């Protein structure tokens, strides 16, 4: 079973600027409404520790990191094939702007059981995208829930 989430947003900043904000894991918690923190480096093969504001902590492995174009990791719940997520940020230059494609492909036996949670995750992606846009464009950061 599989489920694919895709969100996108146009950011009025260069891909390098968007990458710099996205990959600055040390400051992510200052502005992200979705991620509480990410420990590790945005480098292929690196194991990350991803803490969500609402939800569990995952330890995905970076499977693609091509600055300032793509950051993708693969996370798993317990064992492969149970509930796997390929989380991807793709930055596409559009003139002096950047189109962010923020996606995740969920696969595994438990995917059907997470239907409503995955609907909420898509909303969380959109909120993250808006906060990243604000940060990269140099505007006011979007407040986090409860902040």
Describe the structure concisely.
The chain has helices at 15-22, 28-31, 115-136, and strands at 2-11, 35-39, 49-52, 57-58, 61-66, 70-76, 84-94, 97-107. The protein is an alpha+beta fold and 147 residues long.
Largest sheet: 5 strands, antiparallel
Count of structural domains: 1
Reading off the top of the CATH hierarchy, the class is best stated as Alpha Beta
Strand content: 35-45%
Number of helices: 3
What does the average pLDDT come to?
92
Please give the share of residues in helix.
10-25%
Strand and helix map with partners:
Blueprint: E1 2-11, H1 15-22, H2 28-31, E2 35-39, E3 49-52, E4 57-58, E5 61-66, E6 70-76, E7 84-94, E8 97-107, H3 115-136
Antiparallel strand pairs: 1-8, 2-3, 3-4, 5-6, 6-7, 7-8
Helix pairs in contact: 1-3
What does this protein look like?
This protein has 147 residues and is α+β, with helices and mostly antiparallel strands. The protein has a single domain (2-136), classed as Alpha-D-Glucose-1,6-Bisphosphate, Chain A, domain 4 (2-Layer Sandwich). The chain is 23% helix and 38% strand. It has three helices and eight strands. It has a five-stranded antiparallel beta sheet, covered by helices on one side. Strands 2-3-4 form a three-stranded antiparallel beta sheet. Strand 6 (70-76) and strand 7 form a beta hairpin. Helix 1 (15-22) packs across helix 3 (115-136). The radius of gyration is 15 Å and the shape is globular. The termini are far apart. The relative contact order is 0.26.
């Amino acid at each position: 079973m599989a489920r694919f989430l895709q969100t996108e947003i146009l950011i009025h900043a260069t891909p390098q600027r968007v990458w710099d904000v996205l990959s600055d894991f040390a400051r992510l918690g200052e502005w992200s409404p979705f991620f509480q923190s990410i420990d590790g480096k945005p480098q292929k093969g690196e194991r990350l520790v991803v803490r969500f504001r609402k939800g569990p902590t995952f330890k995905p492995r970076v499977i693609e990191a091509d600055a300032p174009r793509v950051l993708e990791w693969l996370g798993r719940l317990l064992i492969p094939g149970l509930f796997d997520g390929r989380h991807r940020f793709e930055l596409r230059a559009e003139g002096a702007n950047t189109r962010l494609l923020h996606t995740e492909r969920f696969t595994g036996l438990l995917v059907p059981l997470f239907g409503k949670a995955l609907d909420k995750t898509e909303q969380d992606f959109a909120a993250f995208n808006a906060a990243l846009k604000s940060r990269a464009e140099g505007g006011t950061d979007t407040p986090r829930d409860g902040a």
